[in-house]
Amino acid sequence: ISIHFFKKLVKEYPQSVFKDKAKIWIWLLNQNMDYAEKVDKKNKRIDLLENELKTEKKEIINLQNQIKRLKEIDLGIEEKKREALPAIGQ
Fold this sequence. Notes:
This protein is an all-alpha fold. The chain has one domain. Helices cover 91% and strands 0% of the residues. Helix 1 packs antiparallel against helix 2.
């Protein structure tokens, strides 16, 4: 990449009038690469968190459905108990 040539200019031509500009470009390109790496890491983290969120949402839906089924079972049991109570009292 271009940074290689800027470094080569600074190293091999220390008296060049372009040396200072090359150093600035080296710094800017390094900063750009650092920022690009940070953005890439953050994007990967975002992807990971989005996947975790999807998984958690699915788990919440499954648990809500399980709670609903358990409530229905509980209501069925209570109804059978109520039906059985008058028979015992007669």
